[in-house]
Amino acid sequence: MSGQRPRLTAIVPTFNEEATIRDCLQSVRFADEILVVDSFSTDATVAIAREEGARVLQHEYVYSARQKNWAIPQASHEWVLLVDSDERVTPGLRDEILGLIASSPRHDGYWILRVNHFLRIRHCGWGTDRVIRLFRRDLARYQDREVHAEIELPGPLPVLAHPLEHRSFRSFGQYWRKLQLYSEWGAAQLYKEGRRAGALEIFGRPVTRFFKMYVVRLGCLDGLHGLVLSMLGAFTVYLKYARLWEMRVLEGAARVPAQVEAGGALAREQIGRMVDEERRPRPAPAPSGRHDESARPR
C-alpha cells in the first residue's frame, strides 16, 4: 500500500447511550473512521456522535449479532475494531492496534481481553473475559445467536497484550434490568435449541454457578462485593432455567414478554456475559500467546 498502513474503522453500536457514548468515541479517535450504528435512539446519542465526528447510520435492531453483522460491511476500511458504548480503548491497546495493523498482520482476527469494572470486584471470574473485536471486515461475522454470539473465524487467534475497559455497572437498577433480560433471552435461546429444564437445572446449575464464582474463582477474596456478585450470577441462572421450565410447561409462553421487549435494544445489547454459567469453549490462542507476526507466513 505504498508504505501506508491498512486503514481502520471503529464501529460502535448504540441505542440511547448519551451517558456513555462521548467517552467511548473519544477513546477510538485514532481510527481512520468512526462508524456509529444506532438503533433509532430517542435521546442525545446521535447528536453527540455527530459532534464527535462519527459517521452515523441507523438500522432497526433485532438482536446484537444481527445488528453487528449488518454493521460490519458498512465499514469503509479493511480492518474493523468493534467497541460497545460501555467500553473504552486504553492508550496501551490503541498503540498496540496501530502497531499491529501497520505490520502486515498474518491473522484475520484478534482476541482482546476485557477488564470488567463491577463495584470493586477483582475475582469471581470477572477479569477473565475476552472477545474478538479486531478483525478483517470481509472475513469476520458473528454467529447468528440472540445472546452471547462470538465472531467466527477459523484457526487459533492471538490474544493482544492490552485490554479493553468494560464499565458494565452503573447502578443496581440498571444492572437488575440486564439480569432480567439476560434470563428471558437466554431461556428463549435454549427453548429454540430444544433444551429442557428439570430439578437439576433449576436447582443444581445456580448452586454450581455460585460455587464457581465464589470459591473456584475466589470471589470470597472480594468480601461482601464478591458475595453479592456471586449471588447475582446464581440467581440469574436460576431465572433463566425457571423461565425455560415455564416455556415447556405452558408451550405458548415461549415468546419473550412485552415488558422485556419494552426494555429495547439498549438493554439487549448490554446483556452481561459474565453471569452466564455456560462458558462456551473458545479457540485456543496462537502458540505464542501474543500477536508476533514475524514467524508466521500467511
Overview features:
298 residues; alpha/beta; Spore Coat Polysaccharide Biosynthesis Protein SpsA, Chain A; eight-stranded mixed beta sheet; 9 helices; globular
Walk me through this protein's architecture.
The chain has 298 residues and is of the alpha/beta class. It has two domains: 8-166, Spore Coat Polysaccharide Biosynthesis Protein SpsA, Chain A (Alpha-Beta Complex); 172-275, no CATH class. Helix content is 37%, strand content 15%. The protein has helices at residues 21-27, 45-51, 64-71, 91-101, 172-192, 199-216, 223-250, 258-261, 264-269; strands at residues 8-14, 33-38, 55-58, 79-82, 87-89, 109-116, 130-136, 141-142, 151-152, 164-166. The strands form two sheets. An eight-stranded mixed beta sheet has the order 3-2-1-4-7-6-10-5, with helices on both faces. A two-stranded antiparallel ribbon has the order 8-9. Helix 2 links the parallel strand 2 and strand 3. Helix 5 (172-192) runs parallel beside helix 7 (223-250) and helix 6 runs antiparallel to helix 7 (223-250). It starts with 7 loop residues before the first strand and ends in a 29-residue tail after the last helix.
Q: Spell out the helices and strands N to C.
A: EHEHEHEEHEEEEEHHHHH
Distance between the termini: 17 Å
Biggest beta-sheet profile: 8 strands, mixed
What's the CATH H-level superfamily name of the largest domain? Spore Coat Polysaccharide Biosynthesis Protein SpsA, Chain A
Structural class: alpha/beta
**Mean pLDDT reading:** 82
Major sheet strand order: 3-2-1-4-7-6-10-5
